[in-house]
Amino acid sequence: MTPEDFADIVADAALSPTVHNVQPTLWRRIDAGTVAVLQAEGRTLPVGDPTGRDVAASHGSAVEGFLIAAGARGLAFVAEAGEDGEIARLRATGSASPDPLAPVLRTRRTWRGKFAESPAPGVLETLTATAPDLTVLSEADDIAAVAALNDVASLKGFRDHGFRRELLAWMRLSRGHPLWAVDGLNAEAMGMSGMEAFGAGIVLRPRVFETLDRLGMAGALTGEAAVVRSAAAVALFHRPADEPPFDTGRRWHRVWLEMARLGLSAAPMTVLADDPEAEAALAMRFGRPAGTRLVTVFRLGLPIGDLPAPARRSVDDLIV
Ligand SMILES: Cc1cc2nc3c(=O)[nH]c(=O)nc-3n(C[C@H](O)[C@H](O)[C@H](O)COP(=O)(O)O)c2cc1C
């Protein structure tokens, strides 16, 4: 792997999904066959992700992206334990044949807007068959139940002032924001119009949010049930309870790419897994395979309109 190959692979890996688009992963080419994977300083979520589980999953997601991108260039790598202070080490093992998911690595995107009519017949069944760790639910009642739980759990999260402050710090609510195209969640990615984004910036402020909440208006402003209900399906993503989050993140990226390969767009609703009451309600209604934990719940379908442009750090900043 030449330095030029390495830069190209990192550029593709950078398009991997990461929590809040914090892009926590840095890459160091040790030699032609060895890459160190490192944590970028400050790119964690101490309030929203106090145990670091989502950031670890994000590293796994980025590493999976790296392996797929390398494979597309004929280079096989494996991920191994990192040395002191490293997240992981990637080691070249020879030549690879391209991963079938490679063609969608650059085009997969989170879609947070409404969905169009249902996908082609058979697509959801194919997804179920290819991803046994997804429980795909397409009955309107089931989707509505998930939508309602998501709104309740989200509002609970928003009531935490520290969580709101951290989220706001990663939001880029106007195109004038210097990091609009770089990282975090911009208004376009969140499916917000300019006016909605402007409003969100006000609503999420301390005191404003509490006042609206006392008036019973906060739920209507943070809720997204109508969007969730428009989904063709929701998919519960269960993984072994003892699986390291890094490995879960690798698989997370792959199941998302499977959806993209089938022409489906998705958005995770991780609060449904993080909120114990929502998680319990989902387990009660839909079951939870023995020995697994719920990682996230995707809503999915066909997007109405164009997928947002990716906001990403430059390769020069990602290679150290
Ligand atoms: C561990 C993890 C958790 C995530 N949780 C959520 C979530 O709860 N809600 C959401 O809208 N997106 C969630 N996402 C999606 C990211 O916000 C998204 O991947 C990131 O902003 C990059 O955008 P892209 O997917 O369009 O490339 C999550 C992603 C990861 C890897």
The helical percent reads 40-55%
Strand coverage percent: 15-25%
Helix run count: 13
Strand-pairing-aware structural class: alpha+beta
Measure the end-to-end span: 16 Å
Main beta sheet: 4 strands, antiparallel
CATH architecture of the largest domain: 3-Layer(aba) Sandwich
- Low-pLDDT runs of 5+ residues are none
Number of strands: 10
pLDDT averaged over residues: 96
Q: In a nutshell, what does this entry contain?
A:
The chain has 320 residues and is of the alpha+beta class. It contains 13 helices and 10 strands.
Overview features:
NADH Oxidase; four-stranded antiparallel sheet; globular; alpha+beta; binds flavin mononucleotide; 13 helices; 320 residues
Structural commentary:
The protein has 320 residues and is α+β, with helices and mostly antiparallel strands. The chain folds into 2 domains: 3-108 and 311-318, NADH Oxidase, CATH 3.40.109; 123-301, NADH Oxidase (3-Layer(aba) Sandwich), CATH 3.40.109. It is 41% helix and 18% strand. The chain is built from 13 helices and 10 strands. The chain has helices at residues 3-13, 53-72, 123-130, 140-158, 161-170, 194-203, 208-214, 218-222, 225-229, 245-261, 271-274, 276-286, 315-318; strands spanning 25-31, 34-39, 75-81, 88-95, 134-137, 171-172, 185-186, 233-240, 265-268, 292-301. The chain has a 4-stranded antiparallel sheet with strand order 1-2-4-3, covered by helices on one side. A hairpin with a 2-residue loop joins β1 (25-31) and β2. α2 packs across α10 (245-261). The model has no long low-confidence stretch (mean pLDDT 96). Flavin mononucleotide (FMN) binds next to α2 and β9.
